[in-house]
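Quick board copy: two proteins, each given as sequence then tokens.
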Amino acid sequence: MEKLHEMQTDERGSIESIRREKLTTHEIWAEILGNISASHLNIFLRESTLYIHQNDGGLNDKDKVAVIAKMISTKKEDTASVNGIGIRMALDSICERCKCIEGISDRPVNLISVTADKKERMEFHFMEYPSWQTNEWTSANEVVLDEFYKSNEKMCLDRFTTGTMWIVPLNKEFVTVIQETKHNSVRDITRLFFNRKLHSKKIHVWYMGESLPTSYPLCDKDTHTFRFTYHEQDNTRRKTRRIVPDKNTLEQYEFLNKNMNFPCSKSDEIKFDEPKQKKGFKPEDYSEDIVIRMRKYTYAEYEKITTSYNMRFQLKGLWVYINDMCILSQPTLNGSGTKDYLQSDLCPILEVELSRDTKMFKFSRRKSESQPTEDGNTLCKIIWALLNEVYGIQKDKPKEKKMSLKTEIDTLRKAHDTLRKEHELLKSQEQPDAQEQVNAPTNNRYIPHVMKNDIWQRLFKVKLEQKCPCCRMVDIMPFSSAFEWSHIEANKNGGTAKGHNIIPICRDCNRKMGTRNLIKWTKEIFPGSIPYLLEYLKEYYSGHYTIDNANV
């Protein structure tokens, strides 16, 4: 009977805490993709077993140590700086838990390595207790190798091309995620993760038997590109750190030569004291190249790109790339002056390309949630300052003045009195005919609940869930926070709170529309929704708007 071995780490005592960390689908899949260092990748499912095959030439001795060690990276320099512990955390989250039968677990995860002279297999056993375990490398059997060679042919490669393949028996939950057809999160994460590599054709990806389309990058045409270098000089007394632009960037963007309030230096030289030079220290030991790309999108362009990646309203901000791989699960707003807010009319997408061993970001086990270091925060401030200088925009939400305790109490009392008066007014009102009540004059902001109910029933009948009339993408329901009551003509432009000027739409559309006319805004941003919106208007608002198939 083959003996199982503990990992070559101290993980036995830490696995219990690791397993308490609930990973998202993005974190799991990005960790797996971050290990890819190939030009061809094939991801496919056989019943409930997932196959991940890449033509990376197979594993050498150092790679074999890395996959079972804790904090050792592989030899593959064109990955996103992953190591064994991250891969195993991801696989442990998606694989079917092994059952121990006479000392050996069933359905282990298999890693196949095919090089020019070796065809080997290693098993990973993800059991409940006591730990993750593995066996020794053994020769791969013919059944597994046949699947490996067929996958090569699927990727239009020579049948005997070398590479590696993970064979993972999935749990029921992740099988459902992989098989989703309409909005497949794994497929969309793969396209976002490799968006630049797919565009430049550095990688070709097959997912569930189909080749992923060539994706355009987040920052495609009309992109501003800046190149900086991070220098660190380790003196005997203190470290000197600087972020400086290169000569081409200085020539292209003249404002960098001015006396700007940037936390960086315009000098691209670094000096070393004599003792350090004698010990063999070189300037490249203290430098790191940084590439910054940015673009500001219009509403229509931004809607198009978010729809393409199925990531609605999640792309605005700064994305981090390692070797052309987009490693974060969502963009960071560090250095922008705000934590969770960008103006609704501001659609910037920024990218920063860093090296694997960067000092700008601190990569934890969950790399998709990585945060900038102290120097990284300085870099983020530079990037947002550049955005403001190039496009001349204000990116921060106006800061609210902090109220004193007395002022806050007075504000709450006034709000309570207002609510009480509105409640008494509603109780004292008689219930007139529904149509009269909808069209009854009101102030420009307050919308009575009776009017809201009547409008909903006239528009959507008895349906409790409906698509937003503007974007047709978000589901709205009564008494939920997913939608708001909007004015067709804004209060600022003379619109009132009468029934013919009120319509329920999703919160995102209401916030983005601002004070623009709802019909004109929808026609510009969501032209495909106009036929549906016209139907609603004909149904309920025809007495107040002249409507035909082209105009309102």
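And the next:
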Amino acid sequence: MRCSPTAGAGPAPRRLRLERVWRVLGRPTQASVCLERTKSAPFGLFGGGAGGPGRVTVTAPDGVERELTSKGSFAAAAGAVIALRAPGSGGYGPAGERDPARLRDDVVNGYVSAESAALDYGERAALACPHCPPTSSDAQVTSMNATDLCYTPATELIPLIRAKKLSPVELTEAVLARIERLDPKLNAFCTLTADLARAAARRAEDAVMKGGALSPLHGVPFSIKDLALTAGIRTMSGSPIFQHRVPGTDAPFVRRLKEAGGVMLGKTTTPEFGWKALGDSPVTGITRNPWNTGMTSGGSSAGAGVAAAAGFGPLHQGSDGAGSIRIPSAFCGIFGHKPSYGRVPMWPTSNTDSASHTGPMTRTVADAALMLSVIAGPDLSDRTALDAPPADYVARLDEGVMGLRIAWSPDLGGLRVDPEVAAVARQAALAFQGLGAAVEEVTPAFADTREIIRCMWNVHEAGNFGEYLAEFRDRMDPGLVAAIEDGLRYSGAEYVAMRARKLAYWDSVRPLFEKYDLLLSPTVSVAAFDVGRLNPKGWPDHPWDWFDWASFSYPFNFTGQPASTVPAGFTPGGMPVGLQIVGRPWADLTVLQASRAFEQARPWASTATAGRTESAGRSIGRPGSPLLHGSRC
């Protein structure tokens, strides 16, 4: 047992930081104890004093308690109770012991704002630094609680960290605590790397205190979808086949996020190999929608969508082979961007005929622009990556849509759409008229892709994973098994012929984008539906075919165009609806600018994060935001 109590971050002195209790079962045991007292500089919203000593006691079965020395071995009889209590110091002690000089030093050094010192330590603290008036950011940090920190965008967290008004450790601990409290109901993370995150946060804090150059995402938490390789961290791909795989290298975008100073929280859930647009897998179970836990999260970037909506940090990576960023983003009420094909390099390159894209899933467009600016750009590991450097997505984000010609299609020329979803998406599309763009309703003459997606999707599943059926069939997702078996019935000649139709599909799409800068449509035909179903009620059942309700997204995987989804509103039942924004090839900046203009006109983050209530274990965030309906868990 080892305890290192350090400086705390609250007004109460010697606040309990850790308590662990063990009972000795079966037979007597021999153990050892080593207690260390560590002093560190205060860092946090309220300063903090040096750490207090820990204490270990052994209570014998007869009730006699003895305190152990700081170091050494001891024996404990069967039935004995061993208790470790580690107080973390915080604040400056009782009112009569508050030292104005210490407060003044901490205010000057940026450990605590003058306003929060006065608020939490009384009048003497206000006199400690009369020449330090509170700034707006001081007031912002002072008013933040842990939930606020978890919902704060990365673009706001970064300046607070750089100004020493927010500790990366404090931020990371707040997010980890929220995950620990809420994720048992949601199941967004399949592998939480809490210890690694804390270590990265401590390194980030040390760099801040030393005053050196800081990276773009310094101290900001992020997550990675479990389809992506992560060095030294389990990568299951949602499958029992790779349940114990630990790669030796990072995918390029993982490496870039780490090099940019981000704090990796862990891996988020995906259905097996990302084969469907839902959120369950044989090894991780069901990932649930935070707006209603009886509903699906969507997929295949299921955990990423839930994590963003639930306030599990600001930045989340998703991948999209047929809608897997946009569908869960729409179902969970967040922003998601599928970049142009090749904008973000992949390794290993996905063996799906250039269908898979990697991109950001966030609560704000600015956070997505920031994240994309870090992960985009060529890499020698991916010869299919675009060789052009990314545009300045952050600096040019607010240029708007004035003068753009925008097409709006409620059904892409004949797709089935739930009326509730269609009505919300239409009203959202019309909002662009008030932003200076010309919006016209169109009926696209796109070629029929129904046979193309079903053939190519299943042939890819068969080619990539069919070899595992003999050993793992009974442990795999039955729908994936059925899709693989369907894919095995196609000949090579049939696949090549279908691929030719896919390549020619752009010729039917190109005329619309020769006339219009952007295309708007619903992101998905339906809102999130009941967990445990492959297709919504009222839609045809099928062993593997889920494409009917998700046909707005995959056409733009075929063409490689950039496409985002923005929160457009809610159904009468309270579930989010997304509006898809599709750009010309390589026009990621235009899509992000349009998304940002819509966000400013109809802000969704304030709706999704208004309030503070987490009463009775029902609300994961705030009133009017995602709810955990306990009766439906």
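Board note added afterward: The radius of gyration is 27 Å.
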